[in-house]
Structure formats: C-alpha cells, structure tokens
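Please, why this fold?
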Amino acid sequence: MQRIIHISILLCLTALFACKQPAPAPKANPAQLQDPEVMHASVKRLTDVIVYDIFSPPVASRIYAYSCLAMYEAARYNEPAYPSLAAQMWAFAPMPQPEKDKQYNFLLAGARAFEVIAQKVTFSTDSLKLFEQQLYNRFKAAGLNDTIFNNSVAFGEAVAAKVLERAAKDNYKESRGYPRYTVPRQKGTWQPTPPDYMDAIEPYWSSIHPFMLDTCSQFKPLPANNYNEADTTSRFYREMMEVYNTCTHLSKEQIAIASFWDCNPYVMHHTGHAMFATKKITPGGHWMGIAAIASRQAKAGYVQTAQAYALTAATLLDAFIACWDEKYRSRVIRPQTVINQLVDPGWEPLLQTPPFPEYTSGHSVISGAAAVTLTRLYGDNVVFADTTEVEYGAGQRNFTSFTQAANEAGISRLYGGIHYRSSIENGLQQGRSIGAFIVQKIQVHTPGVPVAQNATASLQAGIHKAKR
C-alpha cells in the first residue's frame, strides 16, 4: 500500500513537472527569412494607408519613393551584384555599410528601413506599427536569433536615417507653406470644376527636388493647343468636340477602360442633399501594383523585388514633378469647363475631373515613364493580368506588355472625359522620354533580362536629351 502511494505521488509530481515545461519552440522555417512576400506585403500595407489617408497622387509618389528606396538600399547587400541606386541619384549621402564582423538578415533590414520611412511620412502609423510587429513575429518564428535580429533592425534604421536626411532637404516641407494658389481669371485658362470646385492640388510640386532628372523642365512636352473657341476648325476646338462626341457614345469596353484606370483617390458623390466620398488607389499606386505583379510573375527574389519597387517609385516621383511643372505653366482649361460653356451646359464627364490643370495628362506621363522602367527591369512583351483594381471593384484587364498598359492608361482619360487627345499623346511621349533617360542613367541588375533588348525599347520610346 505504501509503495502504491509513493508511485502515485511520483506520477503526480511527474505530471506537474511536465505541465510546467515550456511549450516546444515552433519549428524554424529558414525559407521565410528570404521570402520576397515580406516586401510585397510591406508595400501593400503602405498602399492601404495612402488610400486611407487620402494622399494626392504627387504626394503619394514621394511616399513610395523614399520608403522603397530605403528598403532596397538596406536589402541589396544580400546579393552583391545589385548596385546602390541612391549613389546614382541627386543629393543622397553615402549609405551605411554592414559591419564585416556582424551577421545580418538583409530582408529584415530592408523591412525595418521601409517602416521607419513609411511611418515618418504618413498619418495612420498605428496600422503600420501593428503590421511591423507582425513581421517581427514572423522572423522570430522562422528561427532568427536575437543577435542577428538586432543587428538587422539597427542596420535598417541607419539606412533609413540617411534617406530621411535627403527627404528633409527636398523642399517638400517648405512648399507646404507657400501662398495659396490664385486661380487665373483670363479666358481659356484652368478653372476649378464641378461638382465641388476643389482648390488646385500641389501647384508648387515642380519645386520638389527630383531623384534623377536634372531639372523639373528637362523634358518639356510640345506646346499645348492654343485656346480657340471662335474657330471651329482649330485643333483645340476639334479636340474638345472629340471629347464631347466620344463620351456621348461610349461603348461598354470604353467605359470599362475608363473605370479601370480612374485611380482618383477621393471621388465625391452627390445624391440630392447628401454627399459621400469613395477612396481609391492613386495612379502611381496602380503602377506599384503592376511592379508587384511583374516581380511575382518573374519569381524575383527579395532584392530584385526591392529594386523594382525602388526604381519604379523613383520614376513615378520624377514623372509627377515634370508633369506638374507643365500643368501649372500652361494652365490648360479642362474639357468639362469648355463643353459646359460652349456646347452643353448640363454635360458631365464619365469620371470626376481632378482638381488641377489639364495639360499634360498625369496618367499618360507617369504610365509612359513607369512602363519604360519596368521594361528595363523585366523585359519587353511581358504578358500579365493586371489585378490591381480588383479590390476597388474595377475587375482585371490583360496586357501583352507594359507599353500596352501605359497606352491604355493614357487613352482611358479621353474616354473618361477629362483630357484632350494631344494631352494624352504628348504626355505619353513626355513620360517615355523621362523613362528612357532614367534607364540610361541608372545602372541596375536584371538577371535573365538582356540589356540590348531594353536598350532597343528605350530608343523606340524616344530619348530627348536636348532641353526644349
């Protein structure tokens, strides 16, 4: 009996001891420590924040550019063939170097650098911080030890600090205090448009320092058509009537194209006395989504993926600067204003007209530039399904190249009723010239993509070295 009691006590103590033992550690998964989906998820979360915070398209391009450049500059050391992009851009100080006696996970370093910038230049930081903590948990669950974890986070923060030094000197902060834009009153110039007659967006954006362009006016487009309401045979009048007639007889396909590329971050809706707004991705955010699709389709590793995001974002920023330089120089009147004055007072375009001058088409400029950059990174004739707009209710569209997608983005603005044809065509050419300049200036690493193929694409896009 006594022996049975002893055995019972022993069994109970054994069970109690077993209950107090820590749970077995999760099985390490080293593949997660090299997973490019960390980059994709980071950029997607930033896009969600940009949509939520309602940043304008030019400002969104700046947010993407600094965040993604920091991500790449911290991550690129995992593959020595990838060069520094910041070293080839204007006014960036030399980036920090990893210490030879320390071990790093450069994927984590890139993710941390990205988050430092993203949280600095947006408003909804709680969402980003929660996402960042989830990333950290993922790295620790994958088996990353504390020493490498801490080294990597510190390195990412050092890179971000250098990138932020440049951001502090790009004239963005100063431009926030410039005088309110005065709408010109001379006939034929841009005026705020219905339904809300919003103030002009970013009238001083051309004062932001570009990453790669020499000046904001380096690639001036051809002059806009002269305003002419008296001569019905003038090019201006004919293009205005083309917008009116096209939008009056839109096909289902044209409506689908216009809606797919709408990319208006803040659309106001009026129903009687009620008003509400819907938020959408910016046009730059759409092309960042295409960069994600292309990277996944190419099965790009995390450094190649980071390079695609960084160069695409930098291209978008410079393209917006160049486009806005022309917009507020020429101050071309919008089709809606002219059509309401001369043709049909009750006419409304399919899409809500954005609150800034018409020429050149922003969609056309940034799409033309981004298409050249992505062609350089992933090759010509890349067939892809663009699913970027699915979550915003616009479905998907299929393309056989980045150039085809850019061309459709451009013509979508005619179908939407917010741009003249010359603004679209000259805007595409302006963007292609910017993109061609960038891919010649900036050295990148493109595994599996023949450089000659991309050089040909750049030449076909048209390189304008002379300032016009």
Observations:
- The two ends are 105 Å apart (CA to CA).
